[in-house]
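# nightly structure sweep
# worker-07 picked up a monomer target from the shared queue
# config: single-sequence mode, recycle default, output format = structure tokens
# input follows
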Amino acid sequence: MEELESLARFLIDKYWKKLKKKKNVIGYSGKLQPRIRNGKILKDTLVFRVYVSKKEPPQALSKKDLIPEFLSSSYEQIPTDVVEIGEIKALYNDPKKRYRPLVGGISAMHYKGTACTNGLLFRDEETGEILVAQNNHCCALENKARIGDPILQPSPYDGGTVKKDKVGELYKFIQLKFNEFKCPYRNFFHRIYRIFKESPKNKVDIGFYKPTVEAKQEILDMGKITGKTVPKIGDKVWKVGRTTSYTDHGIVMDLDWNGSVQYSRGVCFFTDCILIQGKEFSQGGDSTSFVQKGDKTIGSLFAGSSSHSIICKIDNIESIGKVKLLI
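# output follows
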């Protein structure tokens, strides 16, 4: 073990000054590591791992920017392994503060609400208006809000006021369909209704407000997104939200989650959602956070527990909301 650590230190001392000048190189591992191939760790080969912000094909790089396949010690050649980890940035911005222009991942909510997260920009397919997405329960208060109601940034719970912090007006929302209500009278009539009708199901918890200030298609601290994607089971995902800020340890567990979600007014049943595994990947106040695989969005977080989060699929948001993600 000591011999391997000494070998790693030797390679760092001998090669790092040259390696760090090469395009996209941002770091290295201080110890020899197993090779990573197609996301899998191969334990049979130890390599000198070089971290880059972006992995490019050899033909796209100049000769001086190519990382050698092997690094030579005094008695053997050690293979290199180039691993892409993205551009590393200090995450020092507080999502609860006031931001202009608006971006995704910051605190924002209906003026009579508590605290939620601001979403991404969409274009309305019917009117062409540029809109900001938020969960229904964030911008429309579980169907109780009125079109034109003010949206604040930061959220009311974070000090936002109508006088100083109005950033938009509720434009439209998809009604949440409840299976049960906490109000006993409403629940009684709803049960009678369900005798004749199938229990309602939801695919999205989404609404949209029209911004009255400048808004950018960016996520706080993380920059621009380039589009949307459909994830695979096992994919690692990240998000920026009002409460937990940046979290990147979410793992896609299920692409067809169906289940009940508790709201302040009652219970809604959802279908065709994404289940993310990750302890404290999200908490209260992170609702609406758009979850990303790389620089592409997979959907909007709207519910969860301490160990799992539920995501509305981006395709369902677009089709049901009659909007298109602004790229």
